[in-house]
Write a structure and sequence with these properties.
Helices cover 32% and strands 28% of the residues. By secondary structure, it is α+β, with helices and mostly antiparallel strands.
């Protein structure tokens, strides 16, 4: 990457980092990106409300390839959004591709998709609407991955990221004086039964692949020693390599909750939040990426197992061929979603070069 292009992209990445915004609130982020593209490129910008895309158009009846970057930030424990996942780097990299495409003919129409709300799993669910009208033939995206050599391309397996969902379970019983707990209905015992049942629900013999359940929060009652509480809430995150397994786990959990709540005389409600599909790569696109790495003499590694964390990118590859790959941040690099994480600028040239090579291939 030429020095002047790299300098522009580094300044852009820092600007995005300093103006981090949470999912569905990426207003200033969009403005920064659109302003950059209008100043430095002749790409056509298509505004779609919560997201936008830019087009390098070479003609009709040509293949159409898309590249996706997410642009939202993680909300920290203090309620403030911060780019602790690297989406500022993803968006800056897509702008680098825009600069590299200037004046070039690649034999395709190239679409640069700037997606909102990846952190909540809702962005790609909306943005996939752009695929069919634009006759997108294939789509590519990447994520920065800590603890792999900096700049190493990580070619992920067919299932690259697990499906997951957050589950909120609310129980309502009947309050009583703490001296007479038998006169009330305290949901704590039903919650305890559910927690105890989780290992059985995760029995690997009944699933095709990895299945996990993490207890995120458990709340029953208040700091009132004279009251036996009536309300309780359990928050879980469940994930699985295969969506089919995730649905099976959810069904078994719902049946167990209903059985125990009815037996205890409790009312119950189950709701789901931040649901993500499995991300399934198309093997031909993986092979294309591998051939590019070999041709360009770029270091790469083929991984055998999916990452446990989820990605809404899977909504795209349900519609069109594509693949989601990784680029190493560096050995011992801070983990994503932690206070010490910041996108490593040194991998930007590699990320942009890979995207350009895919566009040309």
């Amino acid at each position: 990457m030429e020095k002047d292009i790299l300098a522009k992209i580094l300044m852009l990445r820092q600007n995005l980092h300093e103006h981090a915004e949470a999912s569905e609130k990426e207003t200033e982020t969009q403005a920064i990106l659109k302003s950059f593209l209008r100043r430095h490129t002749d790409l056509q910008i298509m505004e779609k409300g919560p997201y936008f895309y830019a087009v390098h158009k070479e003609g009709e009846n040509l293949p159409n390839i898309a590249f996706r970057a997410d642009m939202d930030a993680v909300v920290g424990p203090d309620g403030k959004p911060r780019h602790m996942c690297g989406h500022d780097g993803h968006s800056a990299n897509l702008c680098a591709l825009a600069l590299l495409l200037q004046g070039q003919k690649v034999g395709k129409n190239v679409y640069l998709l700037f997606q909102h709300a990846e952190e909540t799993g809702q962005g790609a669910k909306v943005c996939r609407e752009f695929l069919a009208p634009n006759h997108i033939d294939e789509i590519y995206g990447f994520h920065n991955i800590p603890d792999y050599p900096a700049g190493q391309i990580l070619i992920l397996p067919e299932i690259s990221n697990c499906a997951s969902t957050g589950i909120t379970i609310d129980f309502t019983g009947k309050p009583s004086h703490a001296a007479y707990p038998e006169l009330g209905l305290n949901p704590v015992f039903t919650i305890a039964e559910l927690v105890k049942q989780i290992p059985s629900l995760l029995d690997p013999n009944q699933y095709q692949g990895l299945v996990l359940c993490t207890i995120v929060s458990c709340r029953v009652g208040d700091s009132a020693f004279g009251v036996s509480p009536a309300k309780g809430q359990l928050l879980l995150t469940v994930r699985a390599k295969f969506e089919e397994d995730l649905e099976k786990l959810k069904t078994q959990m719902e049946e167990f909750i209903k059985e125990k709540a009815v037996a205890a005389g409790l009312q119950w409600q189950i709701s789901y939040q931040e649901s993500f599909p499995e991300t399934r790569n198309h093997l031909a696109c993986n092979e294309k990426l591998k051939q590019i790495c070999q041709k360009e003499n770029l270091p790469y590694q083929e991984l055998a197992e999916p990452f446990r964390w989820s990605e809404d990118y899977g909504y795209y590859t349900k519609e069109v061929p594509g693949c989601f790959f990784g680029i190493g941040d560096g050995k011992g690099y801070p983990q994503i979603h932690t206070e010490n994480y910041c996108f490593p600028d040194e991998i930007l040239p590699t990320a942009a070069a890979i995207f350009l090579a895919l566009a040309k291939a």
